[in-house]
């Protein structure tokens, strides 16, 4: 059974190791964090008597292990300077841009690499304390790529899985990293490394063979230091039923109608919903919308564009610069095309309550998801799940992992602004039947596998080891 497989008399426990704990401290109590990964894993860990190792999200907060949601929570404390150097510095100033095709120039600093090693070691040590031979440790994401090999040397009999939530870049880009060997060797400590896409799995395989001499073992495995390391594409999904349930609720339906009314009941509501991140293509999206208005002087009032930008990593200079640029663009478009009482772009820089997010999905005729590179992009799947009547159009970047599955979207090259403008026009003109034909296929894709299937699939690979 999922998360509770037995080998003889021994129960196989699952220890999730992630940058953040699945709970956050609001000053008075711990509350479960929102998000698909946490929702999917909490029941699995409850059943498996598992533990979760992670940072509580606040610098210098040093708490003892505690239980929440029936899960053994194992906090890893980070000092303020570790948050600066490990999290903002190496994770989000070096690895994040490098793994996203170096859209922004990655910075390479020894003074942030060293804390990355030290913090990874602390996560591995904390994990080693709660594991015993036969358990499964499931390590998450780019912040912890050294943990698998560190953990293997501490608890050799452990089954170790790693899931990369972001893309693994082509070797031509990855090879720039001064610490590429250490990162590859760190990951190769795993028994299974799972990726969002086949492309990422292939990129990793090539880098490991060419840069550290791992040997191919069939199509989807490598041999490294006498062990086999499986490489598996396992695209992450959403809790589809929950999105459908929310979208159906009268409160959300009512809020969606209000949103359309507040926007002036336009013919076509176009929505962008992202963390404010330079990988998301928000600036190019706004330029495309500006061109659309420019080309259609008589139809301007037919469109309303809503951009929800969720604050993220605000201490990183590239994110601060992007926010300025986006806000200038919004101001320019509204200044140039708006009229008293009417602004073509509604811009919200905040984290919206979950119900409001769903209401925007329900209200939008067109969802524009045009990242320059994205591991998966769950927003695209969430929008589709909320389109209960098979109406609406998804425009999706070919560089989002989701494009491998959501092939019935209108696919765009986000760098081709003219192409995006033409696709927005095409989307606005699709008949209801044409929308339904595409949306039905998209909905089939998001219903086929949800986040619980994803967790089951990943853990089954580890249980088989
Ligand atoms: O997509 C990778 C990811 O780390 C997600 O897991 C997370 O939701 C997002 O980026 C933002 O992460 P953080 O706020 O922890 O930097």
Largest sheet: 10 strands, mixed
Globally, the shape reads globular
Rg of Cα set: 23 Å
Residue share in β-strands: 15-25%
Q: Give the terminus-to-terminus CA distance.
A: 15 Å
Q: What structural class is derived from the secondary structure elements?
A: alpha/beta
Q: How many distinct beta strands?
A: 20
Global mean pLDDT: 94
The neighbouring-strand order within the major sheet is 7-8-6-3-9-10-11-14-13-12
Residue runs with pLDDT of under 50 for 5 or more positions: 1-9
What's the helix count? 16
Helix content: 40-55%
Describe this structure in words.
With 465 residues, the protein is an alpha/beta fold. The chain is built from 16 helices and 20 strands. The strands form four sheets. A ten-stranded mixed sheet has the order 7-8-6-3-9-10-11-14-13-12, with helices on both faces. Strands 17-16-15-18-19-20 form a six-stranded parallel sheet, with helices on both faces. Strands 1-2 form a two-stranded antiparallel ribbon. α9 (250-262) crosses α12 (354-363), α10 (282-295) packs parallel to α11 (317-337) and α10 crosses α14.
